[in-house]
Task: inverse folding
């Protein structure tokens, strides 16, 4: 089992920044692929970013590329999502997820999920 706890969400004006954190416990963190997903009201959950076990490779959704950065600290069992130049369309509940397999953009491939942290961007 893996437990994931997100933090760092909040209300920010358009153009601002937030950093989300996700603390993991229960398994060797350095063996987990980590991802961030988001879900806006009335919409399906969508991929945001993922990072491989070592942190040497990351992937991003086109909608956030160049604005968001995913990183991890295996010594602290934590993955981060730095979000810059935020837009109102980034408003969503952001979820941290862990995969025991390959780095992937599909939510179905992730085995463990956090409860989510709300990000609201005002215009």
Result:
């Amino acid at each position: 089992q893996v437990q994931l706890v997100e933090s760092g969400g909040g209300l920010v004006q358009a153009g601002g920044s937030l950093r989300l954190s996700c603390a993991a416990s229960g398994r060797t963190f350095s063996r987990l692929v980590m991802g961030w997903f988001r879900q806006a009201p009335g919409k399906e959950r969508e991929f945001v970013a993922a990072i491989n076990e070592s942190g040497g490779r990351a992937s991003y959704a086109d909608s956030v590329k160049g604005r968001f950065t995913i990183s991890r600290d295996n010594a602290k069992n934590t993955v981060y999502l730095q979000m810059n130049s935020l837009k109102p369309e980034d408003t969503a509940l952001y979820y941290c997820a862990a995969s025991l397999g390959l780095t992937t953009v599909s939510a179905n491939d992730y085995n463990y999920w956090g409860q989510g942290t709300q990000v609201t961007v005002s215009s």
Observations:
- The radius of gyration is 13 Å.
